[in-house]
């Protein structure tokens, strides 16, 4: 499906034109479904705590996972106790809802929830019924704020704040709904959300998000790290089983690495033979793929963790909106005791490829506003997770 959309969904072509009538019907059904929820003809469930939904209107990855991780960090710094609810896509568990911890089996609960559990160190619950999963977060794990990962179209869970992520470079493709284009909902849906975040580049009312990752971590021994620059001396195998593998490959090229590309479908269940290459060269993969590959990789296999850097104004506006919702629901937060994360570089500064070659080391592992600047604002490479 993703390969089909990559080929036909990001341009106007004969296939898209033939499928256009079906897309119009799909868009009408989607609008009707949302209208039924908005007018109470289909039931949505509220929680007694604020609910933030992070999602997108297109099929495939746009960078939601690192954004969710940063939001949880930001909310914790502000004194809240956030928890994450996710569908658990790709998981084959028969018991739902269920908690996800750092060592959970991604084949049971999905790769992205395990990644979030490791990164965020907060309560994560997955299940097809997001309302039941969210209630478990609140009633069992003491969360006073819920972040719903990839939940924009799940209207059964009533939300207080909606954040949509847009691929800053591929944008909305040919702007058609499925199957002629890549959209789950019509483009007009973006006008209804509270915030729009552009991954890698932003336009108009969007807030810029930059994803940064300059360090590689050894898959079998996470205490061993190395800069990406240290891999310039040889060609590397680049492995990516994410929504847009070429964004990861472009990120590595931006660091001036020579690649042999190995794209896989999103959420691919890796097997040892997938990583057996004739050339005895280092392997670099995404952190999401590494979740499923520990124990089946060659010795020189590394993953590249990325972190989201957000527009400071977006963070401030979001916290103000959250505070208003929390006050209305009677949620009290701890005083801010944690320092805000220092900003390493301006958002407009691209990922540098000019750092000196590194050596292997051992260590520890609101209200949207109109932009005054016309055109597109770009940040570091927006790796798609």
What does this protein structure show overall?
The chain is 28% helix and 21% strand. It has 385 residues and is α/β, with parallel strands linked by helices. It has 2 domains: 2-211 and 313-325, 3-Layer(aba) Sandwich (Rossmann fold), CATH 3.40.50; 213-307. Helix 3 runs parallel beside helix 5 and helix 5 (111-120) packs across helix 8 (287-293). The two termini are 17 Å apart. Residues 334-385 are annotated as: Disordered.
Largest sheet at a glance? 9 strands, mixed
Distance between the termini: 17 Å
| Radius of gyration, in angstroms, nearest whole number | 21 Å
One letter per element, helices H and strands E, the order comes to HHEHEEHHEHEEEEEEEEHEEHEEHEE
Estimated helix fraction: 25-40%
Number of helices: 9
Strand content: 15-25%
Which CATH class of the largest domain? Alpha Beta
Binding site for ATP: 58-65
Pathway: Glycolipid biosynthesis; lipid IV(A) biosynthesis; lipid IV(A) from (3R)-3-hydroxytetradecanoyl-[acyl-carrier-protein] and UDP-N-acetyl-alpha-D-glucosamine: step 6/6
Region (Disordered): 334-385
EC number: 2.7.1.130
């Amino acid at each position: 499906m993703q390969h089909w959309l990559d080929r036909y969904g990001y341009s106007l072509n004969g296939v898209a034109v033939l499928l256009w009538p079906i897309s119009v019907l799909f868009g009408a059904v989607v609008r009707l479904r949302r209208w039924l929820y908005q007018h109470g003809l289909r039931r949505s469930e509220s929680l007694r705590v604020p609910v933030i939904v992070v999602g997108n209107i297109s099929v495939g990855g746009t960078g939601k996972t690192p954004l969710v991780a940063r939001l949880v960090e930001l909310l914790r710094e502000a004194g809240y106790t956030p928890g994450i609810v996710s569908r658990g896509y790709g998981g084959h568990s028969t018991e739902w809802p269920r908690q996800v911890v750092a060592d959970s089996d991604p084949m049971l609960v999905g790769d992205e929830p395990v990644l979030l559990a490791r990164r965020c160190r907060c309560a994560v619950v997955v299940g097809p019924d997001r309302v039941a999963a969210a209630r478990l977060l609140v009633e069992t794990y003491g969360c006073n704020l819920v972040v719903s990962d990839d939940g924009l179209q799940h209207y059964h869970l009533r939300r207080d704040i909606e954040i949509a992520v847009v691929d800053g470079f591929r944008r909305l493709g040919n702007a058609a709904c499925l199957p002629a284009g890549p959209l789950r909902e019509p483009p007009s849906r973006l006008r209804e959300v509270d915030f729009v975040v552009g991954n890698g580049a932003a336009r108009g009312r969007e807030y810029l998000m930059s994803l940064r990752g300059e360090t590689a971590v050894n898959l079998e021994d996470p205490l061993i790290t190395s800069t990406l620059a240290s891999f310039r001396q040889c060609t590397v195998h680049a492995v990516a089983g994410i929504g847009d593998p070429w964004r990861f490959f472009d990120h590595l090229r931006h660091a001036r690495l020579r690649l042999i590309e190995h794209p896989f479908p999103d959420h691919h269940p890796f097997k040892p033979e997938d990583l057996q290459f004739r050339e005895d060269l280092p392997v670099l993969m995404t952190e999401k793929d590494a979740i499923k590959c520990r124990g089946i990789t060659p010795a020189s296999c590394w993953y590249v963790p990325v972190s989201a850097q957000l527009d400071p104004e977006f963070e401030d506006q979001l916290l103000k909106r959250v505070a208003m919702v929390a006050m209305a629901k009677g949620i009290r937060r701890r005083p801010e005791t944690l320092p805000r994360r220092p900003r390493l570089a301006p958002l407009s500064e691209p990922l540098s490829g000019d750092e000196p070659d590194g050596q292997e080391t051992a260590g520890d592992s609101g209200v949207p506003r109109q932009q005054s600047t016309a055109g597109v604002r770009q940040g570091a490479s927006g790796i798609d997770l």
